[in-house]
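Hey, I'm writing a tutorial for new members on how sequence and structure tokens pair up, and I'd like a real worked example in the thread rather than a made-up one. If someone can provide the structure for the chain below, I'll link this post from the tutorial.
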Amino acid sequence: MKCVTCGKENDSSAKFCGICGTELNSSPEINYELHEYQANDQGMVGFGEAIKLGFVNYFKFSGRATRAEFWWWILFGMIVSWIPLVNILSIFLIIPNLSITSRRLHDIGKTGWWQLGVFLSYFGLFILFFASIAMAVMATLSLGLLIMSLCIILSILMIVIWIRWLARQGESGTNRYGSDPRTTLR
């Protein structure tokens, strides 16, 4: 007799499951939560499927994306950017990069607009960094070096926070951005 809680096959004369201790009945109640999870669990997205999903969802900024889908897509983008002459095609990956990052942020419960905040912050730090170089050359060396150092430290800190967000496991179940991509049919 199969246990409805853990799924272990037990002897037909057993009264309790040998693994989890659940009482075994001749007319068992179905554990709907476990049954639903097992029926809908999609497993991890592979490299090829992530690339396919990236192009299929080219302009889709709504919904959610798993960590595997996101990081496989990032790897694909890095590979494309390193191939001579083909790296020009990486311009066409800008929109799907924004799209999948939005969906990844949605998976952790954050809005995709965080990308704009990160971009503007880096742009501001970039301008400030080069202004500090000019300041160090033309005026006060110590103040220019201090500002330059702060820009580098802030950039590293932002990268660490950004990676932590994007590598974090998504929220379980449905959130305000859609259903859990780990259990929803792709």
